[in-house]
C-alpha cells in the first residue's frame, strides 16, 4: 500500500518548518527525522519570540525552553525549563535515544546537553530583552493570546509580536509511520520554573502509530488539565475525525472552565493514520500549515468555538 507522506504544523510559521520536514519525507526519510528538522527551523528563527533562541524570557529575564518528541514506537523524550541551548528539540530526542528516561528538566537537562556536545548560547536577544523591559514597567501577568484574538488590545504589546506561539508538528512518512515534535519558549514573562503543556507527553503532544497524532498550542495550563493531545488521539481511536476530535477536546476545556475559556486561546491540531487532518481552537486566529506532495505552503484557518 502506497502511503502519501504529509506534514502539518501549528501557525503560519509552520510553512517554513514544514518545508524542511518535507526535504526528509520526500526522500522516503523517517517522520522522526522530519519533525526534528522541521521544528528546528522555528527554533532558529530569531524573529519568532515564542520558540527557541529569541524567545521571550520569564519574568526574571531567563529564557527557558520546553520541548518534546515522540516516534512511531511510542518512544518519547522531553526537556523542560532548559536554558542556554538553542535547539531543545534535539536535546529531547537525545533524552529519548540515549537515556533510560523520558524527561529531563532545568540544570540536569542543561548538564546533559553540554555533556553531549551542545554549545552554550545566549538565548536572550536584544529585541526580546527590550520587550521584557517594557513588560517590567507594568508587570501584568496574564496569558496573552495570538494577535487576532479579539479579547486584548494589541497596540500595547511590545513589538506587536505576540501573533504566534508554540510550534507543534505531526508527520506521516512514506513507510506509514507517524511522529511528532513540539517546542516553545512558553508563556511570555511566565513565573520562573513554570512549565507548560508543550514538553508534557499526552498534553502538548501525543502519537499513537495505530491511530494518529495530536499537538496543541495556547495556554498550556488548560491543556495539561485536560490531557489534551492524548484525549484527541483517543477520540480518533473511537472513530472521530481529526477535526471532530479536536473540537471535543476544546469543548472539554469550555465545559470545565467556561469563564476562563472565553479569555484564552487553545488550539489542537491532529493527523490520523490515513493522512487526514483537522484542527479546532477556542478563539479565532489559529492557523496551521500543511505540506504534502501537491502543495508545500498551504495555510489553513482553524475553526473555533468563540
Ligand atoms: C505553553 N503552549 O507553554 C505553550 C505556549 C504558550 O501561550 O506559552 N502559549 O503553554
Automatic annotation (TrEMBL):
Claim: Signal is one of the keywords in the record: yes
Gene Ontology CC terms: cytoplasm
One MF term in the entry's GO annotations: hydrolase activity, acting on carbon-nitrogen (but not peptide) bonds, in linear amides
Entry binding sites for substrate: 194-197, 217-220
Matches recorded under Pfam families: Asparaginase_2
Active site: 166 (nucleophile)
Keywords from the named record: Signal
Site (Cleavage): 165-166
InterPro entries in the cross-refs: Ntn_hydrolases_N, Peptidase_T2, TAT_signal
Domain of life assignment: Bacteria
Record CDD domains: Glycosylasparaginase
PANTHER family in the record: L-ASPARAGINASE, N(4)-(BETA-N-ACETYLGLUCOSAMINYL)-L-ASPARAGINASE
Record-given protein name: N(4)-(Beta-N-acetylglucosaminyl)-L-asparaginase
Source organism phylogeny: Bacteria, Pseudomonadati, Bacteroidota, Sphingobacteriia, Sphingobacteriales
Amino acid at each position: 500500500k502506497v502511503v502519501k507522506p504529509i506534514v502539518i504544523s501549528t501557525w503560519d510559521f509552520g510553512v517554513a518548518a514544514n518545508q524542511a520536514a518535507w526535504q526528509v519525507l520526500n526522500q522516503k526519510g523517517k517522520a522522526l527525522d522530519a519533525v526534528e528538522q522541521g521544528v528546528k527551523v522555528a527554533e532558529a528563527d530569531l524573529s519568532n519570540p515564542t520558540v527557541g533562541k529569541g524567545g521571550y524570557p520569564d519574568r526574571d529575564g531567563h529564557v527557558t525552553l520546553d520541548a518534546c518528541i515522540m516516534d512511531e514506537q511510542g518512544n518519547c523524550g522531553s526537556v523542560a525549563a532548559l536554558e542556554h541551548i538553542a535547539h531543545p528539540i534535539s536535546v529531547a530526542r537525545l533524552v529519548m535515544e540515549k537515556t533510560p528516561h523520558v524527561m529531563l528538566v532545568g540544570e540536569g537537562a542543561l548538564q546533559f546537553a553540554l555533556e553531549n556536545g551542545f554549545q552554550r548560547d545566549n538565548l536572550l536577544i536584544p529585541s526580546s530583552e527590550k520587550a521584557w523591559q517594557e513588560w517590567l514597567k507594568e508587570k501584568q501577568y496574564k496569558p496573552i493570546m495570538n494577535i487576532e484574538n479579539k479579547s486584548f488590545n494589541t497596540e500595547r504589546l511590545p513589538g506587536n509580536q505576540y501573533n504566534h506561539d508554540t510550534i507543534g508538528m505531526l508527520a506521516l512518512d512514506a513507510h506509514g509511520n507517524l511522529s511528532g515534535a513540539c517546542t516553545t519558549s512558553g508563556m511570555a514573562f511566565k513565573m520562573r520554573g513554570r512549565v507548560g503543556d508543550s514538553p508534557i507527553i499526552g498534553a502538548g503532544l501525543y502519537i499513537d502509530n495505530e491511530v494518529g497524532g495530536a499537538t496543541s498550542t495556547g495556554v498550556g495550563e488548560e491543556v495539561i488539565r485536560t490531557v489534551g493531545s492524548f484525549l484527541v488521539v483517543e477520540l480518533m481511536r473511537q472513530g472521530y475525525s481529526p477535526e471532530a476530535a479536536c473540537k471535543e477536546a476544546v469543548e472539554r476545556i469550555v465545559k470545565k472552565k467556561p469563564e476562563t475559556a472565553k479569555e484564552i486561546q487553545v488550539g489542537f491540531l491532529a493527523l490520523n493514520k490515513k493522512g487526514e487532518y483537522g484542527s479546532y481552537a477556542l478563539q479565532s486566529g489559529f492557523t496551521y500549515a500543511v505540506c504534502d506532495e501537491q502543495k508545500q505552503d498551504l495555510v489553513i484557518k482553524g475553526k473555533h468555538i468563540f
